[in-house]
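quick one, three chains, predict together pls
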Amino acid sequence: MKNRIKLSNLSQEKIVLLITIAMFVVFSFVLEGFLGASNILALLRSVAVLGVLGLGMLIVVLGRGIDLSMVANMAISVAWTIQLVSTGTPLGLAMAIGFTFALSMSLITGILVAYAEIPAIFATLAMGSFIYGFGRAYLITGTDVVYLPASFGWASQIGQGRLWGIPIPIYLAAAMALLVYLFLRFSKHGWNSYNIGDNTPASRITGIGVRPTIVLQYMLSGTMTYVAGLITATAVQSMNTRIVNSNMIYDVILIVVLGGVSLSGGRGNVRNVIVGTLLIGVLVNGMTILDIQYTIQNVIKSLILLVAIVADSIINPRDEQTGQQGDI
Amino acid sequence: MKWNSLKKAALIVVAGASLANAAIAQETNDPFRGPALESLKGKWIAYLPISAGFDLAQAWGGVIKEESERYGMKFTIQDPNWSTDAMAQGMTSLIAERPDVIVTQNPDTQSLARLMVQANRAGIAVVQMNMAGAVQTDAFVGPDYIALGNRLANMAIEKCGAGTDTSHKVSIVQGVITGGVSYFQVQGIMEVLSQRDDIEIVSSQAADWDATKARAITETVLQQHPDLCAILDMWDGQAIGTGAAVKQAGLADSVSVITSGGGAKSTCDLIRDETFDVVVNYDAPGMGRDAWTSIMIALQNGGGGKLKTQIFSPTYVMTSENVDKATCWDPERYASRLR
Amino acid sequence: MSLADNIKKARYRWFPDHIVGEVLSKSWIDNAIPFTIMVIVVGIIGTLLPNFFTGSNISILARQYGELALVVLAMTTVILVGGIDLSVGSVFALGNFMMLYFLNLAEFSVTQSALLVVLICGSVGLVNGILVGYLRLRAFLTTLVTLIIVRAIVDLLLLEFAQDMSMSFYSSPLWDLMGLGSVWVFPFSFVVLAVIAIVAHITISRSGPGWRLQAIGGSRRSAHNMGLPVRRIVCSAYVISGMLAGIAGILYASRLSGAGTDTGLGLEVLALTAAILGGNSLGGGRGSVSKALMGTVTILVLTNGVLRLGLNSGSGPMVLGLALIFAVFVDVRWMKNRHKLLSKVYVSPTLMEMPKAQSTEDGPFEINNRLSDVDVIALGEVESPEDVILDEDDNLYSGNRHGDIIRYFPPDYKTHEVYAKIGGAPLGMSFDKDSNLLVCVGGMGLYMVAKADRKVSLVTDETNRSMFSIVDDSRLRLADDLDIAPDGKIYFSEATVRYEMHDWPVDALESRGNGRIICYDPATKTTRTVVRNLVFPNGICTAHDGKSILFAESWACQIKRYWLEGPQKGKTEIVLDKLPGYPDNINRASDGTYWVAIMGMRSPALDLALKMPAFRRRMARRIAADQWLFPNLNIGCVARFDDSGEVIESLWDRYGKNHPMITSMREHKGWLYLGGITNNRIGRVRLPGREESWTGWSSYWGAKSGRKS
């Protein structure tokens, strides 16, 4: 009986955390070189971009949204920044322009979702297609890969540099996590994000500015997108706009949901994203050292996710009575 | 180069003058030129690469478009944006619209094979660029990839073979495994390496022409084998990720990145900053010229698969030593022609 | 009359205002936006591409359409049940690969391979189904995971077998037929789709399993609570989805014979987009096969067109994105505002110029107090006796609001019983020759209560549908009153075809000819509409000579005659107009004249408003229904008129004390019995000097043998 009560206290987040810790311990003993500082740093560095994107996704998902346009926005805004720098625009100005572009695109997305009331999944899907198309048609008209010019200067350290021996992307991801934490914990709009996710009509009735808050959520997601894009581009010294065709957005959704954030809104915080990101990080790193093929890694990753959500559904069963209508 | 364009300019003037003034001016006395021009005039070339957004396709298309316009031909381009399905759709529609020539690039050996046979049957000349399909049509234009694979393998042996003071470990990053470029290059590589027991292939994975995926794969490999000697990558556009992973790991000096590509400016830059060590350059604008040649051959001989030719484009090896002497071209120059 | 008046008259005479609202109220209007979008997209792309509409191009598109539409159907099946299946793209790729594998490497026959592939893909669907249906995981996440796993499996298989497969080239007559051939002019894949779509359409819209599927999509909780096997049905939806995606994969394999890592990549997004563009709503409950097919046309033509237009890199996705935003935006707005719009435009008043009413100051309608000492029957025990009738044994019958027919016993009618339970609201009544009670029931039709065993049976509830009517006027909405002609044919009025019974005041606000007279012939058991476009036809009564029927048009304040025989047969003429109030039931009087109930009096304000349809329309749109101008139904009278339309007398309750509201009256043995739809009583008043033995039944069917002395 006691066991049962304990078991039912396990949320998906805790299950995932336990799996992560278990794997970490097993890998530490079994795998040579896993526990080394350099490997741990490499592990964290490799998931920093996903983590930052996950934070953006978290904010949107809290308000019952989803942002499928993140990857396109990231690719085009950063590729344009790089292109501007290559054609002689000063670095600072170029970054300001790129950032403004990312923000305005997410602003439009937010307006489409909040004011035009287009379901988020379609608004962002369509915006992703639009942003990519617009970028390729008018901004990045050459090849679909834009290379970092030498004039990118200090900014190329964003993805490659180290400070006190720790890669800068890790600092950036941590800073973003702190920022999002503060926003959700202490700002009015952060609180309102939860309220909107819990019960949109009720939030509206109590006088919360639902629509502006939703727009703000998408703009914050746009901000995260740009930061993640800068890290990606400076790390590979190029921005490949073909990234839009990849499954990356699914990975982002994966870490967010894995950590226990509810896609139906209102449940989740920065901790969940960190847990989800860490699990993927430990898993991928371990599998890498085990020399598991890239494709098989995907299978294992997905199976672990499946185990996590199955475990969650067994411990916290949903049934026809408690399920929310229209919640897919 | 200059001489070439002068010659072209002269040709235009002569051709234009001769066509316009044929009746009243003095007759030129080349009896074969007229029928040749006639076989080109008003014909329609449809260009269907995997994507119009990368350097190779831009160079090929740019060259063909410029030439075709010179002879009063119609040139159209479609951009399936890396989607095989969209490509097949485009090809199917083209067959119905009956252009005279389809210049295409197989995303893999099979997907367009049936369609290309159909196109040939419909009397359309089909030129396959770089990526060979499972059927032979009027022309295949591209380097001899099996030979190129041999060459990459021999370079790997040179760097990492028994006589060297290295780990003899080599990793291969494939493209789309069923894509002609990757498929035949890997065959060429394996042909050489399978007979050598001094080289250890520690990894051979597919990155699907995606630099990000190549980077992820290479990061993995480097963590297991920090003593890796060389990486063979099937395409420079994908090898950017491979090279970045090597650089990121701080192994740029010890791990050689050997790849092949069309020789765009970015490739030269990447050789200069030591992301790549060796690139076998098959000069994409040159391939454009080869393609144009094959179009002329096809059209003057009735097209539709009457003559079937493999046109192997010339290649040369670029390293940091000779990169400054190499002609590196700017894709934007060709891209702007296509717009 | 001024020109402006004539224009106004012509406009209301000829312009069919009511059609907009009626069109909007149809269920197929749900498809209007998706259909319009489809037409626009096909139109634009067709104009931009020169040979778009050529046969060969259409047949090419049809081949691809077959594959894509199957995947969209797969997605739609799952969306209908309230889920989502993101794994369709991967399952499609798996189907494609396995088919080629079986043919090229395992050397099975095409049929064997196809069956195996459907089985394999179905079992992937089964995994989804078990996870989502039985373990109740979230569909989005679960299928996202299977998407990745199946995709990775296909990648692994490709890595293993692609090289062996890439140079082999399977060929057989059946395989070539599937990939390249056609059945008559239709490409093979299109034929497959057509067969599956028809089966799916019938299953979803006309069979139990389909309804259950939609019920679960509409509300999983309610479906569970009413005992549907929710889990099993949800699971089977995913299995079907997997199998359909597998079939699409087989067709793709036959068309291209190529397996690559990007086969079916992003197909789930395309399929989802098509399903939503067609008007299926995510979250379940609303969707159909035709919607899926329309959405697929739009998305296929759009993607194919954008590709073939040869726009520069980027323009394609940009156009696609914009089109998607626009289409979904319009659909969302449409769904949200359709009902608001409908409630605004459905009421469409028309021009009605009321003639000056006959005076109630003097003449036959002069107000008197002859009803002031009415005997009251069943006070407080009956609600809404619209009509009253008496049989040969002096029993009194009336309907009530609760759907019963009450019988009151003579001589004082102090006791009563429930004679029959009908269910709807009984309105007009009549006895046929065999003393069976025929009754019009609002919202239900014409019913009969048998004399012998009081058995209630349906006589008719539908008539022939008018050719150009948009509302389905074959069903009877408001059968109001009936009478029986000497040949046994039953003539009954239907007050309006546009409104249900409780919305009668709205019909008054329209004052359009929405009603009709319908005839039921017991000999042939057929029902047909006799006179159309009547303004709230209400009371109906066969003339004493049996050659015509009289009927009241309430809102037009007139009584008309419809000839059943004679030189005027089939024609309608006005008998009596300019009534000061709204006529209701008409019944025979003992001296060859007729009684008519005036249920309410006209008012100058409403008469004026009837001349101003735009004013009434504004009123209906802008202010709440309880503040509209309505006809007054509080006070009225009973009048007697003869065949020439001469009003002879009228009976009023000046102070409204005993029986102010009258919708019906029957003369019976020197008494006049009164019913009123808003009353809680039945009235009875002595008519001095009238024939004491006259009864309604005998007036119709002659004296009963042996009874009359």
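The two ends of chain A are 33 Å apart (CA to CA).
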